[in-house]
Amino acid sequence: MQVVEAADLSDGDACGYVQDLSLDLQVGVVKPWLLLGSQDSAHDLETMKKYKVTHVLNVAYGVENAFPDDFTYKTISILDLPETDIVSYFPECFEFIEQVKLKSHFIMQDAFVRPVETLDDLPLMKSSTS
Is pLDDT above 50 for 26? Predict the structure, then answer.
């Protein structure tokens, strides 16, 4: 694992990310019709087929859709920074998830690492408020 830091920041604050070169093919079952996976799992055709994925909500910034001929994608590029207002993206994500749910398909959300109450939690947040 390697930590990469941005240079030339004012205030002396460092911001960076942890570069993880290990393959992460884990898939979490949030609901029977909603899966949560990493960009690695979303880029592994065998994993996608194993879980019978039909639709992908890709919220990763700068990550291309790996299999556009095999799956239906909704791409919402969200920059993973503390100042990013991810809540403003929730309605568009909810709409896609609900449309797919009504068709009884499966979704894999191409996730990024954030603290609690992030896009990873949005389906549960919405269902707990409705």
Answer: yes
Give the phi and the psi of residue 9 in degrees, each rounded to 5: -95, 140
Per the model's pLDDT, the better-predicted residue between 33 and 7 turns out to be 33
CATH number of the domain encompassing residue 57: 3.90.190.10
Residue 80 within any structural domain of the chain: yes
Q: Tell me the whole-structure pTM to 2 decimals.
A: 0.71
How much helix, strand and coil, in percent to the nearest 5, is found in the chain?
Answer: 30, 25, 40
CA distance 7 to 76: 27
Report in angstroms the alpha-carbon separations of 86 from 38, 66, 70, 74, 75.
18, 24, 28, 16, 14
Report residue 110 as tokens: 């191409």
